[in-house]
Amino acid sequence: MRIGQLAARAGASPRQVRFYEAKGLITSTRGPNNYRDYSETTLGRVQQIRELLNAGLSTQAIRGILPCLESPRDPIVFEGVTAETMGALERERDRLTERIDVLARNRDAIADYLTELRGRAN
Q1: C-alpha distance across the termini of the chain, in Å
Q2: pTM for this entry
Q3: Residue 38's CB: how many other CB atoms inside 10 A?
Q4: What are phi and psi of 29, to 5 degrees?
Q5: In sequence order, what DSSP letters do the residues of the chain get, joined into one string?
Q6: 93 Cβ contact partners less than 8 Å away, ≥ 6 residues apart
Q7: Rounded distance between C-alpha atoms, residue 73 and residue 75, angstroms
Q8: What is the spatial distance between Cα 1 and Cα 87, in angstroms, rounded to a whole number?
Q9: What pLDDT score was predicted for residue 76?
Q10: Higher pLDDT, 100 or 56
Q11: What whole-number distance in Å separates Cα of residue 22 and Cα of residue 29?
Q12: What is the pLDDT of residues 69-80, one digit of tens each?
């Protein structure tokens, strides 16, 4: 897909997509017309990058995290990881854990409510 389509689907701007590519977070191929072409996999990666940036992580930290999100994994980056980066990652992990817990409780409450509704409908 072309850069405009990728950007629109990912909720980003073409400028942000080019920035992510310049930072080595995503890659593209070039067609015969020299336009960038992105795979469907890149869409998910751009969405992950945006979430991690919104969480306050630097592009350097994100470059280290992204291989952990893929299978098979690219080489994981260890150089240049600071205590500050580790703290940011720990905070993000804890925030996600809290979010998951809230979502699981809400899912369970909705499931219980649906069970009650179905029981009363019969």
Answers
A1: 50
A2: 0.63
A3: 23
A4: -110, 165
A5: --HHHHHHHHT--HHHHHHHHHTTS---EE-TT--EE--HHHHHHHHHHHHHHHTT--HHHHHHHGGGGSSSPPPPP-TT--HHHHHHHHHHHHHHHHHHHHHHHHHHHHHHHHHHHHHHH-
A6: none
A7: 6
A8: 36
A9: 66
A10: 100
A11: 13
A12: 775 556 666 777
Residue 103, both tokens: 């979502």
Give tens-digit pLDDT for 4-37: 999 999 999 999 999 999 999 999 999 899 999 9
- Residue type, position 20, single letter: Y
User: How is residue 37 written in tokens?
Assistant: 């072409």
Q: How many CB atoms lie within 10 A of CB 20?
A: 22
Residue entry with tokens 């690219």: 74
